[in-house]
Amino acid sequence: MARWSAEHPWRAIALWVVFVAVCFVGGNAAGLKEATAQDDAIGEAGRAYVMIEEGGFADEPAVDNVLITARSGKLDNAAAQRAATDATNKLRTVTGVAEVGKPIPANDGSALLVPITMAGDPDDASDRVEPLRSATAEVQQAHPDLRVEQVGGPSINKALDDTLGDDFQRAEILSLPVTLAILILVFGALIAAGVPVLLALSSVAAAMGLSTLASHLIPSTDVTSSVILLIGMAVGVDYSLFYVRREREERAKGRGHVDAVEVAAETSGHAVVVSGTAVVIAMAGLFLAGDSTFSSLAVGSILVVAVAVLGSLTVLPAILAKLGRWVDRPRVPFLWRLSARKSGSFWGRVLYPALRWPAATLIVSVLALLALAAPALNMNLKFPGTEDLPRTTPAMQAYDRLTAAYPSNGTTHMIAVQAPAARAGDVKAALTKLAESTEGNRLFAPPEQTGPDIEVSPDKTVTVLDLATPFTSRSDEAADSLHELRETLAPAALGGLDYAVGGDVANNEDYAKHIWQTLPIVAGVVLLLTFLMMAWTFRSVVVAATSIGLNLLSVGAAYGLLVLVFQGSWAPDLLNFTSMDAIVSWLPLFLFVVLFGLSMDYHVFVVSRIREAVLRGVPTREAVADGITGSAGTVSSAALVMVAVFSIFATLSTIDMKQLGIGLAAAILLDATIIRAVVLPSAMTLLGKANWWAPRFMRPRGRHAAQPAVAPPAPEPELAGRH
């Protein structure tokens, strides 16, 4: 495939451009299908959402509020009433406002709330909230002694969309120049640095379009595009790096452009296909989670990796063959000399302990990684709540004041009951009894003056009660209120009825339980399939088992580091986040498959170089030294790009993106340094010829049947000095 592309470069390039354009345009034309409540239903909380959707409730109109509080001290009720009257009169004239309700005083007299019902589709209310915010700002100017703020779902969503949109835009804008700068440092030439970025960006564009098309089969989620960008930039640049470095190496040996491309395809290209397959296998494990979020992430990741592999076998060889030696132009003088300098002596010194004392080095390094992984045993899983959103916006600061004055506007449990329409009266009475049973219980917010918040579906088959708790959604007290509701209060009041308890707290509990139940299944299948693939690729059961062990060490260390950073108290000020004393629920499972897949990039590339040397008859210890020193520059460069891109995502405002970015960056850094430069060489040196053992039916034949030479290795100091 690579030789055809190299011999017909314009055809290959034109086909690639057409492919990317068709995918991108076709995806945009088809539109995106997003997941529904049925797709996201997990546990009892999911069952409650499904009941509500089956009830056919009319869409609730969007409601925003004007919150009036004192700037300091006690609220002046007369002044607050005047401000509320001004706000009511002004907002009634604003386009898009359907109704302005009567001011509602807080139970403790600390605030006055003016509810505003918005007209139009509630799903896009945040796009139409700006006129309301402007009107409220005018009221604030007229009453400077009070604090008059716009707060509610639409205004908070608008503020967060602006903040997070700016975050992602900054990350996307930064990732490109940072990646390009690292590649210029690596290659010392502008064109060579631009080629991997070009492949990565085109792969991301094609995968975005394909994932949009795929959403009509497997609904998409709002994080899928971010993951495609994250994974696409990482693997796209990695695969190109492996390829371009090998092609330059072969040209330096005197091969012609097409021959150099063909050798690069047979070696690095083969490693790219194997590592890409490993990533696809790992990502496919997410389908076993039975969760629309993971299925969507799996589709996006698989598509972008598959497109990047395809590009590395088609358009990349075509571009390299067409450019020829121009790929090394224009050269950056100092960086060109730096990139051309051999780093064998440095890596020889790094490898010396592993080659000289393999058993001791292996024991010490494995124990160190296990110690780093140990904190993962205390990992807590929770969804981030509203309290974990950045407080840099006035809307979130106002939200905190709203929930302090009106606890029932904060965290709520949602009890859904499904019963024949004839029993609607009995169901409502039972739910009223349930609401009354929480009075005086500190785990639940005081009841509203208007009575329990109960709503009946149009066909009277589903009835919903909202019960508020004054605690944040991920607090221990909120979890206690859920347990008391599920285990005691609801069974006592709703015995014999078909009901389910949902809400944010229930989502936390049920999803964490779902992850802990699913993780072993996904991990087991991914480990088995990866083992079989590696054993067949390298014709060695031992190499496959070693690969699995090393990757598990890497993932475990990344888990432990995440717990140390995000469940500890030392990092929040340093990394600018508010500790939630937990890891985001979906992260461990997603991190496992991503890290397991991406770690294979380096492992396959390094072991392929070692096996090349072994097949030439080089003793295992020298082959390990040759393979690692020969690939160290490429692996280090690829890891540097990945760590830089992932670290940029760790600067985003939301806690889930921070944890994802830091987890990925730390794991790749550990993998490319300690795992590949210390643990791998010491393990393979210690195993010697046993590395290549396999059952008879798996043993290679023909030119792949070469065995490690039995000649004694060179003296250790000479080996280290020579490499």
TrEMBL record:
Region of interest: Disordered: 704-723
Keyword Ribonucleoprotein attached: no
Superkingdom of source: Bacteria
One Pfam family hit: MMPL
Keywords: Cell membrane, Membrane, Transmembrane, Transmembrane helix
Localization of this protein: Cell membrane
Domain Membrane transport protein MMPL: 59-341, 389-701
SUPFAM superfamilies named among the record's database cross-references: Multidrug efflux transporter AcrB transmembrane domain
Membrane topology reported for the UniProt record: Multi-pass membrane protein
Residues spanning the membrane: 173-191, 224-244, 271-290, 296-321, 357-377, 515-536, 548-566, 586-607, 628-650, 662-688
Official protein name in the record: MMPL family transporter
